[in-house]
Amino acid sequence: MPPFSLFFLVLISHATITFSRHPLLRISEATKWSSTRRQLGNDACRTGNPIDDCWRCDPDWETNRKVLADCAIGFGRNAVGGRDGNLYVVTNSDNDDPVNPIPGTLRYGVIQEEPLWIIFDQDMVINLKEELIMNSHKTIDGRGHNIQIADGPCITIQNVSNIIIHNIYIHGCVPGGNAIVRDSTKHYGLRGNSDGDGISIFAARDVWIDHCTLANCHDGLIDAVFGSTSITISNNYMFNHNEVMLMGHSDDFLDDKNMQVTIAFNFFGENLVQRMPRCRHGYFHIVNNIYTGWEKYAIGGSADPTINSQGNVFMALDNSDTKEVTWHESLTGFEEWKSWNWRSDGDMMLNGAFFTPSGQKSSASYIKASSMVARPASYLTNMSPQAGALNCQKGYQC
Fold it and tell me: Which Gene Ontology terms cover its molecular function (predicted)?
């Protein structure tokens, strides 16, 4: 994993709160944190992150994997993945057949009709030949190993529900398509060109993406479009990318007015340009994330989305042209976007960063864009962050 610690040292230089230093980490390791809920384990284990405190203090996490399904927060909190099914173990990383996948491969597991909790028997780098098209009620759980999906088409969550993707390093994703791909045990068909997203969420609901590391994809790292909703994107580490997250299909696609997405406890790292996220229509709760710079903007949108930014840490780059967090895209300018409900509530602005609010100031305007209780931004600076794919070892607290 490239060194985010350098950016944290820059963050320290602009803040009055002391951070602890960390050595450079490997790909399977990550960044530490702080939020609020306290559950398992002793005081030394608890971080205050309500998701992590739900399961990470358990030294038997490996035999209690499905507890994770009860730990989601935000709009995607009802995503149970494969909790109610059997474990499926991926043993084969080399033989990806998009039409007739063989047992033991990741693709064979994700297309099954029944719920499955998918795990891995060893470290793997999986190079997919075409999009990995998932069926409903599936969890991809990479804990305990260094699992990478890389240098090929990546993950597509389309017209399904109840998906959890956890502890995977996704990078180097490229377009696929114009090929036959199986999406269930009962159906395969010709796929058009894919965009080259890390994770593409299309007309799906009840989706939770947690503790993944994402970088260097052809299009978006995580895109959610075409009426998708009930989504939580949490504890992820993202770096080295241009258009990070697109939320909403197009300005004219009105079904996205019902979209609700929580973006929480993520670490937006080095060399990110824009779309963290870029929103259309819908309701977006952007809460308790750390932003270490952006080359164009951090949060933007069009078509009157409601954006509720709470308890985030925004540190601008030294470039005087990139201090603004927000970007309102409209043909008619201020006269159009002045009514869009965008607020910054308790965010920490560092190195000249600033947020341009708009619309109504009342809390009632943001009810549909509120999914959890935000912690003060200062909580994020009390402990060094821990986002991205974790280095979990069996028999030890993760």
Answer: metal ion binding; pectate lyase activity
- Answer yes or no: is pLDDT of 31 > 60: no
Q: Is 73 exposed, middle or buried (0-12, 13-18, 19+ CB in 10 A)?
A: buried
Q: What digits encode the pLDDT tens for the residues 245-289? A: 999 999 999 999 999 999 999 999 999 999 999 999 999 999 999
On average, the pLDDT of the chain sits at 90
Residues 6+ apart with CB under 8 A from 363: none
- What is the distance, to the nearest Å, from the Cα of residue 11 to the centroid of all Cα atoms in its chain? 22
**DSSP, residue by residue, 248-261:** SS-TT-GGGGG-EE
Q: What residue segments make up the domains of the chain, in order of their start?
A: 5-80+93-98+123-132+142-380
Residues 388, 23: Cα–Cα separation, whole Å: 16
Tokens encoding 343? 């607020």
Q: Determine if the peptide bond prior to 277 is cis (ω within 30°).
A: yes
Q: Give me the CATH code for the 5-80+93-98+123-132+142-380 domain, please.
A: 2.160.20.10
Token pair recorded at residue 152: 């090929």
For residue 163, the SS3 value is strand
Q: What is the DSSP string of 14-82?
A: H-SS---------TT-------S---SS-TTT--S-TTHHHHTT-TTTTTSGGGGGG---GGGTT--TT
| pLDDT tens per residue, range 132-158 | 999 999 999 999 999 999 999 999 999
Active site residue 107: no
Exposed (0-12), middle (13-18) or buried (19+): which is 193, by Cβ within 10 Å?
exposed
Residue 357 and residue 344 in contact, taking contact as beta carbons nearer than 8 Å: yes
